[in-house]
Amino acid sequence: MAALRLATRGSPLARVQAVLVAERLRARGSVVELVVVETRADRELEVPISSLAGRGVFVTEVELAVLEGNADAAVHSAKDLPSAAPPEGLVLAAVPERADVRDALVGRSLDELAPGAVVATGAVRRRAQLAWHRPDLAFAELRGNIATRLAKVPAGGAVVVALAALERLGLAGVAAEVLPTSVVLPQVGQGALAIRCREDDLAVRELLQAVDEPGAHRALLAERAFLARLGGGCDAPLGALATCAGPSGPVTIEGMVASADGHVAVRRRHHAADPAQAGGELAELMIALDGVGLLLGWDPARDPSSPAVPTAGGGARR
């Protein structure tokens, strides 16, 4: 039997995630090998993450290996996927069981951070939500793999990382605090893995179905529908978390849009039977709120499809 070739980035976390998928497939009788691909994001570590958001720099080269036949499927952190649909010829074949979606502080807990303490993170989503709760904090840019980030904890401060990343690398014990989603809503797809393969490769799609978790898959579809409608390519802080009542039950999704400085934050919740409907309708509900378009960087003068958004609404800090 020919080996199933899984393409992955070369970072330690990406390799671990690909190995997790490989082990699940091997447990079901598949022969699996990894194909490691270097991406633009791995080469341009000096570029802020916010400048790369939505551009596919974490996934494009990996998926090219699949499209060109050098691999059979690609394993991604779901949060790295751009908001657009998969490239022509690829399909989201499987979403395994999701890990913890929460963020974690390494260094000091939120309550232990003194006024003016520095929190390092490359994500405007994290910075904005933490600033909403603690406007007295200062923030610094942060890039690199998990080991690099953990080595850059500011004196008296903290860095923010995904708890799932720490757990997968066996480093959960370094977390000073796991932040509840009521404080920091996660990035779309955080904690989830997304496996894409060629749409016409029915044999591979059937193999990958063995590791698909329908509830996690439906939740991810809802979150990505929310992201796609709001425009995931912009630099505005967005967060979303969907949960599914069983493998085919209704989906509940909570979404967040904020200003980059954290002075304005809007959160809403919605539910529907269909995942794409739940995410899309929540986005529409938030678009209808005054000011959300401004947070997203929409300019009605240049984009007729953007709603009129004269002022920031009731989520502003008082």
Descriptive account of the structure:
With 318 residues, the protein is of the alpha/beta class. It folds into three domains: 4-96 and 192-212, D-Maltodextrin-Binding Protein, domain 2; 103-179, Periplasmic binding protein-like II (D-Maltodextrin-Binding Protein, domain 2), CATH 3.40.190.10; 214-318, Double Stranded RNA Binding Domain (2-Layer Sandwich). 30% of the residues lie in helices and 22% in strands. It is built from eleven helices and 13 strands. A five-stranded mixed β-sheet has the order 2-1-3-10-4, with helices on both faces. A five-stranded mixed β-sheet has the order 7-6-8-5-9. It has a three-stranded antiparallel β-sheet with strand order 11-12-13. Strand 12 and strand 13 form a beta hairpin. The longest helix is centred in the last third of the chain and has 17 residues, at 214-230. The chain is globular and about 60 Å long.
